[in-house]
Specification:
47% helix; 523 residues; alpha/beta; 20% strand; five-stranded parallel sheet
């Protein structure tokens, strides 16, 4: 073979020089840390070794097919070289269970083997036979793991799991179903007793962490090392990550689980990533799920085509982890904001309200939550119709927003739970001031939403929930204020339960009122 031209040598040098430095650095890391007790570090070094070796081999193949033609560097690579060898695989690290964890198992004999596995791993295990008992125990003891077998008799096992995942007292718990041939359930993982139980438990805990609120991401890429490294970066950034290596696996996982965002490789071994994207957008469950497309192709027409087919973003590989994390968080913020806004008031809804209260609880500083409720709204809505009822809700939202703007602070928060219920989060001093101002403006303006006859009479005719004729006074406003001291409440739903007690007391007061909680009020 003739000596390559200087132009070809320079071209090869542009590839070989940084690859040599990279390979030397990886060898140095392997020498110093290859025997580390940190399994994650060992896995990362092994992935770097495999990837640099593949780059070296591909670079050698590339160098054999480079030439100069008409003042241009030309590379003609045979198809078998471009396709490369079979991609390597690497085991995914798993989370070890810790001692003194509590598991509540609901069901019969099918749970015997699982009980033995958990006990051997150092868990405390509570066995009960009915779903009702299991839910009660989960609310009382807050276990890390709640497993429901398919032989529970008092309630359908799937329904029991859904209740546990929905109830605010238990939804922080990792919930799973166990048995034979259980159909996939959204948001509830399955444990197959015919498969190794310990491996399944480790994967379950590794992907769920026992934490509520962590965004769940599906990473679809055929490169095992990319799945491992990028998956670890996403996990370290605070996401729950599930991976898939091909189109078929990805579509199966998507039918079984719920994800907040999907990262999708453009080229997959069993199909085009765009085909997966089209399938996602054609399926009601995933129609609105954000999708980031990863691709080595940077051509503008490919980006435009992908965005037209429904991708929320297009990221060219290789990309920095910092850039990808920033794009993910931006998309998730936009998705959560758009899905949470109330369509009438355009105020943040339940998801954001709960998040705000959780953040305030985590600060361990005093604050106050005010629950704003319209009295006699059902009577007004039934009498005047829901369009007029929506106008009342919008009017109330604007009053609240105006007063918070003029009399509140920079960190004060206003949200709309839905219907005629609103939430204020601020300090106790500002909440009292804001509440009184809102009541004054509400009482001064609300009569003008009635006809002259109803306004002069001071009430409207209607029927109660039992269908009996009754009179509904003009609308009024009740504000139940719950002061929150550090460590007084642990969860947002506890504050909501206390506010519900206050709201019932406020209904006994005629007209608008602001009721502040105190120990003397009792339960």
């Amino acid at each position: 073979m003739s000596r390559p031209s200087s132009e070809v040598e320079k071209f090869i040098h542009q590839f070989a020089s940084p690859l040599t430095a990279l390979q030397s650095a990886v060898e140095l890391l392997a020498h110093h840390y290859g025997q580390s007790d940190d399994q994650r570090l060992v896995n990362l070094i092994a992935a770097l070794q495999r990837s640099t070796e593949r780059l070296r081999q591909f670079g050698q193949q590339l160098a054999r097919h480079v030439d100069v033609e008409d003042y241009a560097i030309v590379v003609r690579v045979p198809i078998e070289v471009a396709q490369g060898s079979a991609r390597s695989s690497s085991p995914s690290p798993v989370m070890k269970t810790t001692s003194m964890d509590l598991a509540v198992l609901v069901g019969g004999g099918i749970l015997d083997e699982l009980t033995n596995v958990l006990l051997a791993a150092g868990w405390e295990v509570e066995r009960v036979e009915t779903g009702a008992h299991g839910l009660d125990l989960a609310r009382q003891r807050r276990p890390r793991l709640l497993v429901i077998a398919n032989d529970v008799r008092d309630i359908e096992p799937v329904m029991c799991g859904q209740i546990a995942r929905t109830d605010p007292e238990t939804r922080d718990i990792v919930v799973a179903l166990v048995g034979y041939d259980i159909p996939p359930v959204r948001g509830i993982p399955l444990i197959d007793v015919r498969q190794p139980l310990l491996d399944q438990l480790q994967r379950l805990l590794a992907t769920h962490h026992g934490e509520r609120g962590l965004p769940r991401i599906l990473l679809i890429d055929d490169e095992a090392d990319i799945r491992m490294i990028l998956g670890q970066q996403l996990t370290d950034a605070g996401f729950v990550v599930v991976t898939a290596s091909d189109r078929a696996t990805a579509l199966r996982v998507i039918t079984e689980q719920f994800f907040d965002l999907i990262i999708l490789d453009r080229l997959l071994p069993d199909g085009d990533g765009l085909q997966v994207l089209q399938s996602l957008r054609a399926t009601p469950k995933t129609r609105l799920t954000p999708v980031i497309l990863l691709s080595a192709v940077s051509a503008l027409d490919e980006k435009v085509r992908s965005l037209k087919l429904g991708a929320d973003d297009y990221v060219v590989k290789p990309c920095s982890a910092a850039e990808l994390m920033a794009r993910i968080r931006s998309i998730l913020r936009r998705s959560e904001r758009e899905s949470s806004l109330n369509p009438i008031s355009r105020l943040p809804g339940n998801v954001v309200i709960e998040q705000v209260i959780r953040e305030r609880l985590a600060r361990k500083q005093p604050f106050a939550v005010g629950y704003v409720d319209l009295d006699n709204f059902k009577g007004y809505n039934d009498h005047y119709g829901f369009f007029k009822g929506d106008a009342i809700i919008l009017h109330t939202a604007r009053l609240l927003a105006d007063v918070v703007h003029w009399q509140g602070g920079a960190e004060d928060f206003l949200g709309h739970l839905g219907g005629d219920d609103f939430v204020l989060v601020t300090t106790i001093e500002r909440l009292q001031r804001i509440g009184q101002a809102v009541i004054e403006r509400f009482d001064a303006t609300i009569p003008y939403f009635y006809s002259a006859e109803d306004r002069e009479r001071g009430y409207i005719f209607g029927h109660d929930r039992q269908g009996h004729p009754c009179r509904y006074p003009l609308l009024s406003l009740s504000i139940a204020v719950v002061p929150v001291a550090p460590a007084q409440y642990q969860q947002p739903y506890e504050i909501a339960m206390r506010a519900a007690t206050l709201k019932r007391q406020s209904k006994q007061i005629n007209g608008s009122c602001l009721l502040i909680d105190s120990p003397e009020r009792g339960v």
